Each structure stands twice: as structure tokens, then as C-alpha cells.
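Um, can you check?
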Amino acid sequence: MIAFQKYAEVFSAYAQDQLTDQAPENLYLPIDYILSLGGKKIRPLLAILGRNLYQESLEDALPIAYAVELFHNFSLMHDDIMDDAHLRRGKPAVHEKFGINAAILSGDAMFAHSFAYINRGFKNDRLFDALQLFCNTSIQVCEGQQLDVDFETRDLVTQDEYIQMISYKTAVLLSCSIALGAMTGGASDQDTKSLYDYAINLGIAFQIHDDYLDTYGQSELVGKKVGGDILQNKKTILWIRSLDKGFKERIQEALAIKDDSTKINQFLEIYADAGADQFALSLKMEYFNKALKNIDTLDIPDLKKEWLYQFAQNLMDRIY
């Protein structure tokens, strides 16, 4: 699988040397903990890939890769508090292990450190543009999270609203990651935009797939309780499609169920009758194909375009 394993190894070695043995210990222990839980490392890999499309040397991409990984995990720490999630990647969530105050404060520190690492990564004249992109992305991620929270108490959410929410909550950080990496390598403005659009479409497909796995995946592989979105009344594409197909009354009846297993099973029946599962998979492929079309507009060798095709396919093939 081309250079992705190399990217992971280089990034892992770099990450291990960062933020270690810092004081106060109680601020940095939760950070070390969440970063040690593993994860797919999609965002740092995208940053390094973006760089490698234009430059052989990966060194300048590593601070960028670490910045987006810090930011992503900061958002997860705070999301888990808001969602009252007990598990993260199959282990106790940070607020469960260290307390809510520690999770909030350590997350804030990660957010601040992420900007410092963006600053380290740019030795060319693109630093201002990079910081502007990262600031805008940070705001959009917060907006996406708020939309997600708002949707939980709304009876109606449209497909367009859902796509906007997942674009902000998930896709924009993927786009920011690859765009920043490409910018360190000297990518043109047009190529940077094409890569950004590639990752937006891929990120939407990724989140639809993630929503699907939350309902139909295996808990031990996904790393969290399957059916969590159902229990939290999240308006995923499965819910929205079922509502669009006329299952409002059955959904309302299912919402009143108190037993978790019974509620999840009832929604599974609704989704099956509405064809929501197949619709979600079809919509995922629609955005996946859009991402592939963005690759064609890039001014890079075909071999490097193939790297982007393979990266996208690997995301769609995952089962966790």
C-alpha cells in the first residue's frame, strides 16, 4: 500500500517526541492518554500525503500533521463530555478516567498547542493563509457540533441540513489537513482548492459510512457502543431517510421506548422497512465518486493521483 505505512511510522516517531514530560502533570496526562488510544490517524496522514504530492521531504509536514491530530482529539474529548460517552476507541473516555474538569482544560491546551504547531510547519510565505484556513476550520467544526446538538431536539432535519452539518463537523478538518500539507509543499492555489474539494467530498462519504457503522458495525471493531446514535436521538442519514419515506409515526413510537436494546432493534426494523441502509450506502458512493473526480483536475503525475485514489478507497473499505 504505497507510502501510507511509511507516513504512519514517520508520524508516530515524531508524535512520541512531542508534549512529553511537561508540567503540570495533571494537564498533560489526559493528552498523553487520548493520543495513546490509537485511532485511524486519517488527518495527519492526509497532511503528510498533501506534502508528498509536491515534495519528497516530509519534515515540514510533520508539525502540521501533529497540529491537526491535536485538534481532532481535542474535539473528541469535548464531544465525549457533551454526548456523555463512556468509551473512546474501546477505552474509558478522558472525562471518565480523569474527570470532566481535566478533560475540558486538557482539551483547551491541545487546541492552543495545535496553532503553535501550524506556525512551526510553515517556512514559506503561506503562513498567514494557513492560519486563516485553520481558524476558519476551527470555527466550522464548532458550528457543525452545535448543529449536531441542535438536531437532537428537532423533529425535522432535511438531508441538505445533515450534509452541511457533517461537512462542518467532519469533512472540513480533512480538507484543511490535506490543503495545509500541500501548501507546505508549494502547491498552486488551484491544486490546493482541488485537494480541499476532494477531501470535503471524501469526508462526507466518510461520515455517512461512520454513521452506518455506528448502527450496523461490530462494537469491538468500532470501539464504541453500536447504536449510540440511535440512543442519543442523532439525526443521521438513516433517520432522515426513514422520515422522508413516511415513517414518522413509527419513529415517534420508537423514541418513547426506555429499554436500550428494544429501542435499537425497533429503529433497525424501521430503517430496513424504509430502505434507509441501502440509501445511505448509495449516498456515500455518490460523494465518494465526486471526490475521485476532483483528483482528475490536479496538476500532478498520474502515479501521485493514484495515491489519492487508493487513500479514498481504503477509507471506504474500512469496517471500523
In short: Residues 220-224 have pLDDT under 50 and may be disordered. The two ends are 19 Å apart (CA to CA). The chain has one domain: 4-315.
